[in-house]
Amino acid sequence: MNEQTFLKELKEIDLLRQAMGILEWDNQTGMPEAASEYRSEVDSYLYGLYFEKKIGAPIKEAIEYFGTHPEELSEVGQAAYTLVKEEYELQKDVPQSLAIEASAATSRAHTAWLKARKEKDFGLFKEALSENIRLTKEMIPYMKKNELTDYDVLLNQYEPNMTVEILDNVFSQVRDGIMDIRRQLAEKGTAPATTILSRKMTEAQQRTFISKVITDLGYDFNRGRLDNTVHPFATGINHNDVRLTTRWNEHDFSMGLFGVIHEAGHGMYEQNIDEKYQGTPVHEGASMGIHESQSLFNEIIIGSNRAFWQKQFPFFQACAEGTFDDVSFDEFYDSLKHSQASLIRIEADSLTYVLHIIIRYEIEKMIFNDQVAVEDLPQIWNDKYEEYLGVRPENDLEGILQDVHWSGASFGYFPSYALGYMYAAQLLQAMQKDVAVDDVLASDDYSPIRLWLTEHIHQFGASKKPNELILDATGELLNPQYLLDYLRKIYFAVYKIND
What we know:
2 domains; 20 helices; globular; metal ion binding; carboxypeptidase; EC 3.4.17.19
């Protein structure tokens, strides 16, 4: 075994991953519904090849050999070896037949989810979701090492070393802090008017505006594209192919615009990973929490910045072709930061967003640690929304069917959004020591922000763990207080509260 042979094997694994990524993108952006069963067969076949190579003899040989000959690996080889060994240890005991079965099930589940959404009927998705849960539960014992709970095993796949114990403590602090801010807004604040948010702005007008904005922020359309889908996502096929998707509402421009800004944050991360890692598992985000920190930095930190919008507002008015010519900037900006409890996570304002994540986290804990029945999930979902946000879904589309994640068996992913939110606020605090963020966002050149993020986060890909990245970039481990302080500052200003 030598490094060249090892990296060649990793390249072949990555080529299969790229093929599956393109098929998954197609599945969510244009595949005919009738093709679901055929596509499921293709997906499971490719995943079988992919899984077999990931735990096959060459990888096993490389793990054993370089475990005693690390000096023969370059920097790239060593970073790749660390990740490959971790993944091998996680997957090596999972029966290949079970892994293939799980892959095929998620392909079918996505089609069932789309049908259930159309009919607003969880019953049409219940069987597919039950199957995803069953197969995930079957795989957990093969993947479990020293985790205290089954759900910890799932969390660890998206955020290394994250546990229920840590999240319970962090989420408790954040939940209580947000509830306190909401209470003060209700008692002392003056809510901004929001009627302008429903004015019609066509998809074409929105696309013209936001395409230039994300280009200015640093997303490279020469290495990417923007398509429509039911549930927005970004996918990094390779270093020069990073695709974004969104959905539009012509009577709620904020949904599409902020959705694209969010996904562009993912895209910019993938586009700015050091190309030397291409073809290895290092050429991806350090974790889903770190990935979400980059998308939410775009959406929430930049997207909440007054100077940013003051600079962009004239162009926004021009793109809307007269629709907002009678609106002052102050009226426009304040309307964007109006906070109101809502039913849909991806349409939630930046203050209540984390509460949506905590609801999903608590339900997933119940599924995998407490054995809750699948048929009871819609009721549990609705009850939690009423408890935390004071609103109750009128149908399953507004409730449990809104997210794509469970159709893909992405259990344990949701907490990454909240962690990313907290990471983003902490990164802002550190960035402001080096970059005059408000001044940059008021200028014609946003590159100092992108370059800072590339220097401290993007370039490393998965060569560093999340806690290492955050510690190196900010000088401390995760501190949720930065998020609470940030939200208090933004919303107290808009709601005219002097604190």
